[in-house]
Amino acid sequence: MDYGQCEIGSVVARVSRFRVTVLRQDGSAVAAHLSNTGRNKELLVAGNPISIRRAANPERKTPFDVLAVQRDGRWINIDSLAPNRVVRAALQDGSLQLPSCREPYVVHPETTYGDSRLDFAGSDAGGAKWFAETKGVTLANGTLAAFPDAPTTRGLKHVHTLTLAQQAGYQAYLLFIVQLPGITRMTIYHERFPELAPAITQAKAAGVRVLALGCATGPDFIDLAAPLGFDETLPFTEVDVV
Protein backbone atom coordinates (compact mmCIF):
# COMPACT_ATOMS: atom_id res chain seq x y z
CA MET A 1 0.00 0.00 0.00
CA ASP A 2 1.48 3.29 -1.15
CA TYR A 3 0.45 6.41 0.76
CA GLY A 4 1.53 8.77 -1.98
CA GLN A 5 3.06 12.09 -1.03
CA CYS A 6 4.26 12.36 2.54
CA GLU A 7 6.95 14.24 4.41
CA ILE A 8 9.46 13.35 7.10
CA GLY A 9 9.81 15.41 10.24
CA SER A 10 10.77 14.65 13.82
CA VAL A 11 8.74 13.89 16.92
CA VAL A 12 8.36 16.75 19.37
CA ALA A 13 5.92 15.10 21.79
CA ARG A 14 2.78 13.03 22.06
CA VAL A 15 0.42 15.53 23.62
CA SER A 16 -2.70 13.36 23.87
CA ARG A 17 -4.02 9.95 22.93
CA PHE A 18 -4.68 10.98 19.34
CA ARG A 19 -2.32 13.91 18.83
CA VAL A 20 1.40 14.27 18.18
CA THR A 21 3.36 17.47 17.69
CA VAL A 22 5.76 17.14 14.76
CA LEU A 23 8.64 19.41 13.75
CA ARG A 24 8.70 19.84 9.97
CA GLN A 25 11.85 20.33 7.95
CA ASP A 26 11.01 24.02 7.45
CA GLY A 27 11.17 24.51 11.22
CA SER A 28 7.42 24.79 11.83
CA ALA A 29 5.60 22.62 14.38
CA VAL A 30 2.30 21.02 13.36
CA ALA A 31 -0.35 18.85 14.97
CA ALA A 32 -0.72 15.34 13.53
CA HIS A 33 -3.49 12.85 14.20
CA LEU A 34 -2.40 9.49 15.62
CA SER A 35 -4.84 6.67 14.86
CA ASN A 36 -2.88 4.10 16.90
CA THR A 37 -4.05 4.08 20.54
CA GLY A 38 -1.22 1.88 21.86
CA ARG A 39 1.40 3.20 24.25
CA ASN A 40 4.08 3.60 21.56
CA LYS A 41 6.40 4.95 24.25
CA GLU A 42 9.51 3.51 22.59
CA LEU A 43 8.51 5.04 19.24
CA LEU A 44 7.13 8.50 19.94
CA VAL A 45 10.39 9.70 21.48
CA ALA A 46 11.45 13.31 20.92
CA GLY A 47 13.76 13.54 17.94
CA ASN A 48 12.75 10.29 16.25
CA PRO A 49 12.07 10.66 12.51
CA ILE A 50 8.34 10.50 11.76
CA SER A 51 6.44 10.46 8.47
CA ILE A 52 3.21 12.41 8.10
CA ARG A 53 0.70 13.02 5.34
CA ARG A 54 -1.60 16.01 4.92
CA ALA A 55 -5.17 15.15 5.91
CA ALA A 56 -7.86 15.02 3.24
CA ASN A 57 -9.98 17.49 5.22
CA PRO A 58 -8.22 20.90 5.18
CA GLU A 59 -10.49 22.16 7.98
CA ARG A 60 -9.46 19.49 10.49
CA LYS A 61 -7.78 20.69 13.69
CA THR A 62 -4.97 18.19 13.13
CA PRO A 63 -3.94 18.96 9.52
CA PHE A 64 -1.66 15.89 9.21
CA ASP A 65 -1.89 12.13 9.82
CA VAL A 66 0.93 10.08 11.36
CA LEU A 67 2.05 7.16 9.17
CA ALA A 68 5.29 5.72 10.55
CA VAL A 69 8.14 6.32 12.98
CA GLN A 70 11.79 5.36 12.54
CA ARG A 71 13.63 3.62 15.37
CA ASP A 72 16.92 1.75 15.23
CA GLY A 73 17.15 2.21 11.49
CA ARG A 74 13.76 0.73 10.55
CA TRP A 75 10.44 2.34 9.77
CA ILE A 76 7.59 1.13 11.98
CA ASN A 77 4.15 1.77 10.55
CA ILE A 78 1.73 2.96 13.25
CA ASP A 79 -1.29 3.62 11.05
CA SER A 80 -4.01 1.52 12.71
CA LEU A 81 -5.99 1.41 9.45
CA ALA A 82 -3.14 -0.18 7.49
CA PRO A 83 -3.50 -3.84 8.61
CA ASN A 84 -7.10 -4.13 7.43
CA ARG A 85 -6.35 -2.37 4.16
CA VAL A 86 -3.37 -4.53 3.19
CA VAL A 87 -5.16 -7.74 4.25
CA ARG A 88 -8.31 -6.89 2.30
CA ALA A 89 -6.31 -6.12 -0.83
CA ALA A 90 -4.28 -9.32 -0.48
CA LEU A 91 -7.37 -11.48 0.05
CA GLN A 92 -9.04 -9.99 -2.99
CA ASP A 93 -6.05 -10.27 -5.33
CA GLY A 94 -5.09 -13.75 -4.15
CA SER A 95 -1.67 -12.86 -2.73
CA LEU A 96 -2.78 -13.93 0.78
CA GLN A 97 -3.90 -17.54 1.03
CA LEU A 98 -5.81 -18.69 4.08
CA PRO A 99 -4.81 -22.22 5.12
CA SER A 100 -7.50 -24.81 4.33
CA CYS A 101 -9.48 -22.34 2.19
CA ARG A 102 -9.49 -22.62 -1.60
CA GLU A 103 -9.15 -19.50 -3.70
CA PRO A 104 -10.70 -17.32 -4.97
CA TYR A 105 -12.42 -15.82 -1.95
CA VAL A 106 -15.56 -13.78 -1.55
CA VAL A 107 -14.62 -11.13 1.03
CA HIS A 108 -17.00 -9.08 3.19
CA PRO A 109 -15.48 -6.47 5.53
CA GLU A 110 -16.82 -5.55 8.98
CA THR A 111 -19.21 -8.44 9.68
CA THR A 112 -21.03 -9.14 12.94
CA TYR A 113 -20.93 -12.57 14.56
CA GLY A 114 -22.54 -13.00 17.96
CA ASP A 115 -21.92 -9.79 19.89
CA SER A 116 -18.66 -8.94 18.08
CA ARG A 117 -17.84 -7.13 14.88
CA LEU A 118 -15.06 -8.99 13.08
CA ASP A 119 -12.88 -7.46 10.38
CA PHE A 120 -13.71 -9.94 7.62
CA ALA A 121 -16.10 -12.72 6.68
CA GLY A 122 -16.17 -14.64 3.48
CA SER A 123 -16.38 -17.90 1.61
CA ASP A 124 -13.88 -19.90 -0.42
CA ALA A 125 -14.16 -21.45 -3.87
CA GLY A 126 -16.00 -24.44 -2.44
CA GLY A 127 -18.47 -22.35 -0.48
CA ALA A 128 -16.86 -22.90 2.93
CA LYS A 129 -17.53 -19.97 5.27
CA TRP A 130 -14.79 -18.23 7.23
CA PHE A 131 -14.15 -15.30 9.56
CA ALA A 132 -10.92 -13.36 10.06
CA GLU A 133 -9.81 -10.73 12.56
CA THR A 134 -6.65 -8.65 12.04
CA LYS A 135 -4.43 -7.12 14.72
CA GLY A 136 -1.63 -4.68 14.02
CA VAL A 137 1.69 -5.27 15.78
CA THR A 138 4.18 -2.43 16.33
CA LEU A 139 6.07 -3.59 19.44
CA ALA A 140 9.40 -5.36 18.94
CA ASN A 141 12.76 -6.15 20.49
CA GLY A 142 15.31 -7.12 17.87
CA THR A 143 13.81 -9.81 15.64
CA LEU A 144 10.97 -10.68 18.05
CA ALA A 145 7.65 -8.83 17.83
CA ALA A 146 4.90 -8.91 20.45
CA PHE A 147 1.24 -8.05 20.89
CA PRO A 148 -0.37 -6.18 22.59
CA ASP A 149 1.28 -2.84 23.22
CA ALA A 150 -1.54 -1.99 25.66
CA PRO A 151 -4.24 -4.03 27.46
CA THR A 152 -6.97 -5.01 25.01
CA THR A 153 -10.24 -6.38 26.32
CA ARG A 154 -11.63 -5.89 22.81
CA GLY A 155 -8.90 -8.10 21.39
CA LEU A 156 -9.61 -10.78 23.99
CA LYS A 157 -13.31 -10.67 23.10
CA HIS A 158 -12.43 -11.16 19.43
CA VAL A 159 -10.37 -14.26 20.27
CA HIS A 160 -13.33 -15.73 22.18
CA THR A 161 -15.67 -14.90 19.28
CA LEU A 162 -13.36 -16.59 16.77
CA THR A 163 -13.29 -19.67 19.00
CA LEU A 164 -17.09 -19.78 19.11
CA ALA A 165 -17.29 -19.36 15.33
CA GLN A 166 -14.82 -22.22 14.85
CA GLN A 167 -16.83 -24.45 17.16
CA ALA A 168 -19.99 -23.56 15.21
CA GLY A 169 -18.50 -24.90 11.98
CA TYR A 170 -16.83 -21.87 10.43
CA GLN A 171 -13.10 -21.65 9.78
CA ALA A 172 -11.72 -18.81 11.87
CA TYR A 173 -8.45 -16.91 11.47
CA LEU A 174 -6.55 -14.53 13.74
CA LEU A 175 -4.13 -12.52 11.62
CA PHE A 176 -1.32 -10.55 13.26
CA ILE A 177 0.12 -7.97 10.86
CA VAL A 178 3.63 -7.05 12.03
CA GLN A 179 4.08 -3.48 10.84
CA LEU A 180 7.88 -3.37 10.70
CA PRO A 181 10.68 -5.23 8.90
CA GLY A 182 13.44 -7.42 10.32
CA ILE A 183 11.16 -9.67 12.37
CA THR A 184 11.42 -13.48 12.35
CA ARG A 185 9.12 -14.48 15.24
CA MET A 186 6.16 -13.16 17.16
CA THR A 187 4.73 -13.76 20.60
CA ILE A 188 2.15 -12.43 23.06
CA TYR A 189 3.30 -9.90 25.65
CA HIS A 190 2.12 -11.79 28.74
CA GLU A 191 2.96 -9.11 31.29
CA ARG A 192 1.00 -6.47 29.42
CA PHE A 193 -2.23 -8.52 29.24
CA PRO A 194 -2.00 -11.95 30.90
CA GLU A 195 -5.42 -13.24 29.79
CA LEU A 196 -4.66 -13.12 26.07
CA ALA A 197 -2.09 -15.90 25.59
CA PRO A 198 -4.20 -18.63 27.29
CA ALA A 199 -7.22 -17.56 25.23
CA ILE A 200 -5.17 -17.89 22.04
CA THR A 201 -3.91 -21.32 23.11
CA GLN A 202 -7.52 -22.42 23.64
CA ALA A 203 -8.53 -20.95 20.28
CA LYS A 204 -5.78 -22.85 18.50
CA ALA A 205 -6.85 -26.06 20.24
CA ALA A 206 -10.38 -25.48 18.90
CA GLY A 207 -9.03 -25.14 15.35
CA VAL A 208 -8.63 -21.37 14.95
CA ARG A 209 -5.70 -20.64 12.65
CA VAL A 210 -3.30 -18.01 14.03
CA LEU A 211 -1.02 -16.41 11.46
CA ALA A 212 1.69 -13.78 11.89
CA LEU A 213 2.53 -11.93 8.68
CA GLY A 214 5.58 -9.75 8.23
CA CYS A 215 5.65 -6.49 6.32
CA ALA A 216 8.00 -4.42 4.22
CA THR A 217 7.70 -0.81 5.37
CA GLY A 218 8.98 2.66 4.68
CA PRO A 219 7.94 6.22 5.45
CA ASP A 220 5.34 6.13 2.68
CA PHE A 221 4.38 2.47 2.17
CA ILE A 222 3.53 -0.85 3.81
CA ASP A 223 3.24 -4.19 2.02
CA LEU A 224 2.67 -7.72 3.25
CA ALA A 225 5.79 -9.90 3.22
CA ALA A 226 6.65 -13.41 4.39
CA PRO A 227 4.82 -15.33 7.15
CA LEU A 228 6.55 -15.35 10.53
CA GLY A 229 6.86 -17.92 13.27
CA PHE A 230 4.24 -17.50 16.01
CA ASP A 231 4.45 -18.89 19.54
CA GLU A 232 2.32 -17.32 22.24
CA THR A 233 4.45 -18.89 25.00
CA LEU A 234 7.72 -17.08 24.14
CA PRO A 235 8.82 -14.48 26.72
CA PHE A 236 9.15 -10.85 25.68
CA THR A 237 11.02 -7.89 27.17
CA GLU A 238 10.47 -4.34 26.01
CA VAL A 239 13.29 -2.22 24.62
CA ASP A 240 14.43 0.45 27.06
CA VAL A 241 13.44 3.99 26.11
CA VAL A 242 16.47 6.26 25.95
Describe the structure.
- The chain has 242 residues and is α/β, with parallel strands linked by helices.
- The protein has three helices and 15 strands.
- It has a nine-stranded mixed beta sheet with strand order 7-8-9-12-14-15-13-11-10. A five-stranded mixed barrel has the order 1-2-3-5-4.
- The longest helix is centred in the middle third of the chain and has 15 residues.
- The radius of gyration is 18 Å and the shape is globular.
- The model has no long low-confidence stretch (mean pLDDT 96).
Features:
single chain; 242 residues; alpha/beta; 9-stranded mixed β-sheet; 5-stranded mixed β-barrel; globular
Write the layout of secondary structure elements.
Elements: E1 7-16, E2 19-23, E3 29-33, E4 49-54, E5 64-71, E6 74-77, H1 82-93, E7 106-113, E8 116-123, E9 129-137, E10 139-141, E11 144-147, H2 153-167, E12 171-178, E13 185-188, H3 196-206, E14 209-218, E15 221-230
Parallel strand pairs: 3-5, 9-12, 11-13, 12-14, 13-15
Antiparallel strand pairs: 1-2, 1-4, 2-3, 4-5, 5-6, 7-8, 8-9, 10-11, 14-15
Helix pairs in contact: 2-3
Short description:
By secondary structure, the protein is of the alpha/beta class. It contains 3 helices and 15 strands. The strands form 2 sheets. It has a 9-stranded mixed β-sheet. It has a 5-stranded mixed β-barrel with strand order 1-2-3-5-4.
